[in-house]
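Model it.
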Amino acid sequence: MPRSDYSWIYPSQTEGDGNDKAITAYRRLYHGIRAAILDGRLHPGERLPASRDLASSLGISRNTVVTSFDLLTSEGYLETRVGAGSFVATALPDRDMQTATKSGLAKQKAENQRPLHLSQSAMRMLAYQRRFPRFRVARPFNPATPDLDGFPFDLWARLLRRAWRAPNIDLTIPDDPMGMPLLRDEIAKWLRQSRGVNCQADQVMVVSGAQQALDLIARALVDPGDIIATEDPGYEGIRGVLASSGAVLHPVAVDEEGLCVDGLGKTSSPSRIVVTTPSRNYPLGTTLSLSRRLALLQWARANDAWIVEDDYDSDYRYDGPPLSSLQGLDTDNRVIYVGTFSRVLFPGIRLGYLVLPPALIPAFRGMRGFADGVPAPTAQAALGAFFAEGHFGSHVRKMRLRYGERRAHLKSLIADTASGLLEAMPSDGGLHLCARLVAGHDDIAVQERMVKAGLDCRALSSYYHDKSSKNRGDLPQGLVLGFAGWEKNQLSESFGELIEILKRRS
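Modeled.
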């Protein structure tokens, strides 16, 4: 399709000329066309407008255009075809092209070498960039991949269409930064019934995911220099978003009973916030014991601290019903409960929630207005209906059975075919298993070899806070193996490749 507007080709100033007022109109047009040819905005063989038409669109005389065209033609930038008009030359002057190319490369190099002054917040966050492989399509054994084939996308599409066929004011002009009322009510109801969370709909804030929830918490409650206690090992994305606030992160060890509460006292001043995953540590899968839950709540009360309970995939427990939440034991309103739908439904839904203590609601409501306002109202409406019509509960029950079978299959593969290489670590739920390397392997090296083979492996040691080379030998060596997103035959095939990689240890 031919261009309809060439106003950009007639610059108001010409780079490199000292006195713009002294530059004649035809020279300005000449420089504009010449620059556009050299930097690729005008392509070889492209037809330029007729001189009369170009003069009219640019508001200059036709003689100015003709003079410019003649000069460009004489220098080899344009060529004239009888009866057809003026075209960009198909063979451009080599000397000028090389000069322009070198000039452009030099300019680009200078821009790349220019000092970049990022904020301290950005630098602190980037220090915790995730270093795991990125595959466009999920590969075994990615620990965060649910079974997308199991989600009823046709039903989801109908719910989205229904919301738009008769949109209400909450959908077209959303103004409550806490989220849509129907969804908040359904989330509160589900959490009361399935997790023992003590909450009402007005305490629920819908967010775009757990990362945003943590970002809002840090903005509201943390000043630079405050101490935030995190589990070690733990999810690195948590550390990055919290570090951006200027907080000092204090890693606290996790053992077979979960977070070691005694480790909270090993700081110069009490932690402002403790971030924990009491139902299932990520990645180990250990559960915080009742005695430690009570000790943690008592510690928070004594030190005027907040507890952030991250319940990232608590709906998928296979050795019994879902555990009751830590928040449900809290009688002092010190627990902020965080959840997400990315693993229960599908990652692209980008919806999660906060359950706030009543005293924090006004502050979070006000802050949210300066963040992103209201997240994805259409998706909120569809998800509210998905809950209200019973689809959410039935989907969780169906997937819990499917994932339980795949988990059992992976455990049997480890026990039956990986003797002397891997040992499954205890866990009662989630979308992944941790397997300890028992033959002296370096898990980072194993991860690198698996990635080359097209497998999305995660090294257990990479989840620990201290990754320095001098202490790596002290870290547990293992693999974090996701099972949820693949059929049993796919798991068997990929696990066979893993075994071969371990046996071919270099």
